[in-house]
């Protein structure tokens, strides 16, 4: 998983209906088969073409399934609009190269900029430069510390991911009648705020069921490390009742280690919502659920950037302008609803 920090107004929860963004910010061309377009619906006047705009886009290199899906979702959504020219710069994991790339978009005078920074702190200044130049920035996922550096932030809910996973684990253990469960947690990178938020949400939710985490270790968001960490935890705990893995990409390695060890006495919950994880869930194996942190947020970012650049708001909201921040809800995918989520799952 990437290195974001998530903040904002809950969108898709109590205050705003879950489909508001998709309904309000629709495309005007027929839907294609891209994952980003699966849930698009009619949205009043916003469905009609508006003023032609150019949207610049910059993101890290696609060396991770979730990051690759971010770019694909953004590209697919932009293609839906006859009034949008999508100008993406070369993806890179080098901070200085991304700064230079964003500066090139500023020089090109794009009408809006969708930016997923490698590091929000280090790209804060160039994002502020864009805003000062009159180019609204839609800050995707990894937040800039200076609110003057972005017009709208949109991303997922890390704390909510932990809460969703914790409640699923707690309820399942109660159903199974387990009194003193061994609960194992495999994190991404332990020092990151996003990981700490996920772990806190997990612990808080478990506490409401009378449970706590027995052991946790970080796996660096890689398949290889996920495999190594899972193997170590399996060796250290001869009996496990439940396991939560923060990231479905590293989960490929976690599942491989579990299968290699021949362990079947526990159930597992994943994180992020990869198609690979969803197929495992559908097959009815050890992986019972995953909690979403969907890269479809990139498609929503393009939708918002288009509206902001055209001076339009979301037709399902009373306010005339798009919100300043949008936090997407973390949803729980199980065997019962997996078919509904598979179309927007990303490939690990």
From TrEMBL:
GO MF annotation terms: carbohydrate binding
One GO cellular component term noted in the UniProt record for this chain: cell envelope
Pfam families: Peripla_BP_4
Keyword field: Signal
Signal peptide per UniProt: 1-22
Keyword Secreted attached: no
SUPFAM superfamilies (alphabetical): Periplasmic binding protein-like I (SSF53822)
InterPro entries per the UniProt record, alphabetical: Peripla_BP_I, SBP_2_dom, TAT_signal
Compartments reported by the entry: Cell envelope
Keyword Signal: yes
Domain of life the protein comes from: Bacteria
Limits of the Periplasmic binding protein domain: 55-312
Protein family per UniProt: Belongs to the bacterial solute-binding protein 2 family.
Listed PANTHER family: D-ALLOSE-BINDING PERIPLASMIC PROTEIN-RELATED (PTHR46847)
Descriptive protein name: Ribose transport system substrate-binding protein
Organism of derivation: Actinomadura namibiensis
């Amino acid at each position: 998983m990437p290195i974001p920090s998530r903040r904002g107004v809950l969108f898709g929860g109590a205050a705003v209906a879950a489909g508001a963004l998709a309904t309000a910010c629709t495309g005007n061309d027929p839907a294609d088969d891209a994952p980003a377009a699966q849930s698009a619906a009619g949205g009043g006047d916003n469905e009609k073409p508006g003023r032609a705009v150019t949207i610049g886009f910059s993101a890290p290199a696609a060396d991770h399934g979730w990051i690759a899906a971010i770019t694909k979702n953004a590209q697919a959504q932009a293609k839906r609009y006859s009034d949008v020219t999508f100008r993406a710069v070369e993806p890179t994991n080098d901070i200085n190269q991304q700064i230079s790339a964003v500066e090139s978009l500023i020089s090109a005078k794009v009408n809006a900029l969708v930016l997923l920074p490698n590091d929000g702190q280090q790209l804060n200044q160039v994002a502020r430069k864009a805003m000062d130049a009159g180019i609204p920035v839609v800050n995707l996922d990894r937040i800039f510390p200076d609110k003057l550096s972005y017009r709208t932030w949109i991303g997922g809910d890390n704390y909510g991911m932990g809460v969703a996973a914790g409640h699923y684990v707690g309820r399942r253990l109660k159903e199974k009648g387990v009194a003193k469960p061994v609960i194992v947690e495999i994190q991404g990178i332990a020092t990151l705020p996003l990981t700490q938020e996920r772990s806190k949400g997990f612990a808080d939710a478990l506490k409401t069921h009378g449970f706590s985490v027995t052991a946790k270790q970080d796996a660096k968001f890689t398949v290889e490390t996920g495999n190594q960490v899972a193997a170590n935890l399996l060796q250290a705990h001869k009996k496990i009742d439940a396991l939560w893995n923060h990231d479905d990409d590293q989960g490929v390695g976690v599942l491989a280690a579990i299968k290699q060890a021949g362990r079947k006495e526990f159930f597992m919950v994943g994180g992020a919502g990869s198609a690979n994880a969803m197929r495992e869930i559908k097959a009815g194996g050890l992986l019972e659920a995953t909690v979403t942190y969907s890269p479809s947020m990139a498609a929503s970012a393009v939708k918002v950037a288009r509206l902001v650049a055209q001076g339009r708001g979301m037709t399902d909201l009373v306010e005339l302008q798009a919100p300043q921040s949008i936090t997407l809800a973390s949803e729980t995918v199980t065997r019962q609803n997996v078919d509904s989520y598979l179309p927007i799952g990303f490939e690990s």
